[in-house]
Amino acid sequence: MVSQMRARSEEAKEARRAEILGQTLELWAQARYEDLTLQAVAQRVGLTKAALYGYFPTKESLFLSLYETLLSDFLDELQRHLRLGGRHTPRSLAALVAALLAEHAPLTRLMPHLAGLLERNISETRAREHKHWLLGRLGPLSASLEAALPGLPAGGGVALLTYTQALVAGLYPMSDPAPAVGAALQDPVLSPLCVQLDVALPAALQALYRGLSASPDEQGT
């Protein structure tokens, strides 16, 4: 039976939000974004769809909050690795980031939807809140990246992380094509167009990190 009782205290509301996000994550592991509905989420947590709106007014706002949760976990783990000390080359840092992204598959799957979908149906207030949150999370990590990757300029860590997401957002959909496209790519003649994320992402990240950490003279050549 669906419960229409909404949490009343702030503590209870936060607990319910966490429950909704946890159940959404489980559903996300089983379905594509376009196939996952708010009705399915509401049923999973024992709420009516109308009651769910009291926590997340749109599907986009729900998944943006899920994205923030998943990204926080990824950034925390990356920070832990960087705090171990030592210097990285563009190649070793690319290998580390690619390996961590592979371990955080739900985040990697969600990244392509951020700019094209999740940020398209939220209020200006929520957008500002999200961007300030993001900058606050990336700032401290930026300093660790600048210490770990020689040649990365001051503030360059934020750009590195931003462009990393852009690469994932572009490469992941190409590595997971629609059924008709996947079938067409079985043609050996079309093999140069096939994208394997575990191969393409480390190579693309390495090239990106090498460019970001190059001296001005090297960048101009």
UniProtKB/TrEMBL annotation:
User: Which residue spans traverse the membrane?
Assistant: none
**Keyword list, A-Z:** DNA-binding
Q: Which stretches hold the DNA-binding feature?
A: 37-56
- Residues in a coiled coil are none
- Superkingdom, taxonomy of origin: Bacteria
Record-annotated HTH tetR-type domain positions: 14-74
Keyword hit for DNA-binding? yes
Q: What is this protein called?
A: TetR/AcrR family transcriptional regulator
Natural source organism = Deinococcus hohokamensis
